[in-house]
Amino acid sequence: MEVRERYIARLMSEPWQQNFTAIKFVHMPQIVVNPWVRQRCQFLCTQSRQSDLCPPFSPNAAETAKVLEDYKFGLMIRREETVPFTREVREVWREFQDALVEVENESFVRGYGKAFAMATGNCVFCHHDDSLRPCEFIGKRRPTMEAIGINLYDTLDMIGWRDMLFREVEEPLNLFGLLLLE
């Protein structure tokens, strides 16, 4: 079996193998957490309060910062999608989040016992209504970075990717994910 360090090096040098565009190494101090990010998510998002992955039910910024103390590094993962989409937007996000969960699971098997992945946007592996019924995607559900207070703008700025958030309407859309590793 491939040693864990070689696995991460291969993942970073060959992101297309997992259907990603690029992967960048992130040290924990580069991940910026601010309470206002979660607040914006809670009060401005139409999906707020519709799942236990969304504010006010998701962990707050202080809890997130405390959890990040248990990690040494992570990988910021980017996938570029051309627009207009050739399939439904939800399918594009689901495919990306599926790939993140797959990389998380592979990282766990390779010896990263605290591997945990999450994406931006909304979790597509949960229902979005007021019922708070059990999720049918057990094992795939993840809070989004915004829902737990991670400031994507400042985090991407710290790793030199901030300009990838801004685009013209006809330019490709970048999807972002974060894989936390010990």
What is this entry, summarized?
With 182 residues, the chain is of the alpha+beta class.
Q: How many domain regions?
A: 1
Structural class: alpha+beta
Oligomer: single chain
Coarse morphology: globular
Q: State the major sheet.
A: 4 strands, antiparallel
Terminal Cα span: 19 Å
Describe the 3D structure.
The protein has 182 residues and is of the alpha+beta class. It has one domain. The protein contains five helices and four strands; from the N terminus they run αβααβαβαβ. The longest helix is centred in the middle third of the chain and has 21 residues. The radius of gyration is 16 Å and the shape is globular. The model has no long low-confidence stretch (mean pLDDT 86).
List keywords for this structure.
182 residues, four-stranded antiparallel sheet, 4 strands, single chain, 5 helices, globular, alpha+beta, 15% strand
Topology:
Elements: H1 4-13, E1 22-27, H2 35-44, H3 61-68, E2 73-81, H4 89-109, E3 116-119, H5 152-158, E4 173-181
Antiparallel strand pairs: 1-2, 2-4, 3-4
